[in-house]
Amino acid sequence: MPESTTNLDLSQKSARVELMSGVAEEPGSAKPDPMLTVDNITRHFGGITAVDVTHLEVQRGIITALIGPNGAGKTTFFNLITGFDKPSPGASWTFDGQGISKTSASRVARAGMVRTFQLTKALNRMTVLDNMMLGAPGQRGERLLSSWLQPLWSRQEKDIEDKALSLLERFKLLEKKDDFAGSLSGGQRKLLEMARALMTDPKMIMLDEPMAGVNPALTQSLLGHVESLRDEGMTVLFVEHDMHVVRHISDWVVVMAEGKVVAEGTAKNVMAQQAVVDAYLGAHHDTDLGDDALLEDENFAAIEAEAQQESEGRS
Ligand SMILES: Nc1ncnc2c1ncn2[C@@H]1O[C@H](COP(=O)(O)OP(=O)(O)OP(=O)(O)O)[C@@H](O)[C@H]1O
Separation of 140 CA from ligand 1 center, angstroms? Predict the structure, then answer.
C-alpha cells in the first residue's frame, strides 16, 4: 500500500482532508491509493445508455458518496461493479489491486466488496437472526447472499451465530433477534442490511440509499455507524439522495448524470460546480447547489422532481 494512506490515521478528519487535498477535483481524477479502479464501463438498455464511465477511482479508507439525479445510472453502476449485471465488452475494473471484471457476484463479495440489499418479501418473513445467518433463498440476490456466506459456513455454526449476535448487538438489534425482519422500522431495516453485509468482513461496503425511509431519530445513529466503519479502516461507497447526509459524512463526492461521471470533489466544491447544477437543474438555471437553502429537503425534492420531469420529457 502506498505510504500516502498507511502513514495517515484516516479516522481523523484532518488526515482525510490532507489525503485528498492533492487530488484534482475533476471527473476520473487519480487517487493516492485507490481501492477500486474502473475503466470503460458501459451498459445500454435498448436505446438508453444507462452507464458510460470512462475512468473512476475510489480512494481507500474514506467515505465516497455517489450522487446524481434520478436515472443517472448510479444503481446500474453498483450492479455492474459488484457482478450483478454485465457491462458491454471492453470494460475492466480492479479491486484492491485484483482484476475482478470477469468475476461473479459471489466472488466479488469474497474478494471483499459487498453491497447492501433491501429486505425483500422472503427476507421479511425470516427472523432477524436468520437474516444474519441467511438461509432461505428466493430471488437471485438472496441466493447470492447465501453464497457470499459460504466461506463462513465452513466454520462451525456456533462461530457464525456468535458473529451474527455480536453484530446485532453492535447495531442495537439484539433484542429483536427473534422478531420477523418485516416487523422492523425503516431505520432498523437499514441497520440490519448493514449488519448483514458485515458478516463477510468486507474491505469495502457499498450502501444503496442507507438513509431512505429512516426517521430523523435514527438517522444520526445510522450516520454514526457508517462513520465508524470508515474509522475502522473500511472503504465506504454510498448512493444517497439526501444532500444533508452527503454533506455530513462524505469525504469525497462523485456526481453522475446521464450515465457519466460529470464531477468529483469535496461536497462543498462539487455542489458549486456548474456541471452539477446543470445535471440537477438543467442548464437554464443559475442556482448554486453550494447554497445551503438548496439543501433543505423541500427545495431538494423540488429540484429532483424537476430533473425527473426533464428526463421523462426527453425519453
Ligand atoms: N433493467 C432495466 N431495463 C431498462 N432500463 C433500465 C433498467 N435498469 C435501469 N434502466 C435505465 O437506466 C437508466 C439508469 O437507471 P438507474 O436506476 O441506474 O439510475 P439511478 O441513478 O440509480 O436512479 P435513481 O436515483 O432514481 O435510483 C435509467 O434511464 C433507467 O430507466
Answer: 18
Q: How far is the CA of 208 from the centre of ligand 1 (A)?
A: 13
Which of 49, 67, 74 for mutating ligand 1's site (highest number of atoms within 8 Å of CB)? 74
The CATH H-level (homologous superfamily) assignment of domain 13-122+202-287 is P-loop containing nucleotide triphosphate hydrolases (3.40.50.300)
Distance separating alpha carbons of residues 270 and 254, to the nearest angstrom? 8
**Distance, CA 257 to ligand 1 centroid (Å)?**
11
Kindly provide the ipTM of the predicted complex, given to two decimals.
0.97
User: What's the distance, CA 130 to chain centroid?
Assistant: 24
Q: What is the 3-state secondary structure (H, E, C) of 219-250?
A: HHHHHHHHHHHHHCCCEEEEECCCHHHHHHHC
Q: What number does the ligand 1 atom closest to the CA of 73 have? A: 18
> Residues 21, 27: contact at Cβ < 8 Å?
no
Residue 127 class from Cβ within 10 Å (0-12 exposed, 13-18 middle, 19+ buried)? middle
Residues 6+ apart with CB under 8 A from 47: none
Q: Which residues contact 160 (CB under 8 A, 6 or more apart)?
A: 133, 149, 152, 153, 199
Pairing type for strands 63-67 and 252-257 reads parallel
Q: Are 88 and 43 in contact (CB under 8 A)?
A: yes
pTM: 0.83
Q: Which atom of ligand 1 is nearest to the CA of 72?
A: 21
Query: pLDDT tens-digit profile of 259-293?
Result: 999 999 999 999 888 778 777 765 344 444 544 54
Domains of the chain: which residue ranges?
13-122+202-287, 127-183
Pocket of ligand 1 (CB under 6 A): 45, 48, 50, 68, 70-76
Count of residues making up the chain: 315
Please state, in angstroms and rounded to a whole number, the distance separating the CA atoms of residues 192 and 205.
14
The H or E element spanning position 204 is strand 204-208
What is the 265 CA–ligand 1 centroid distance (Å)? 24
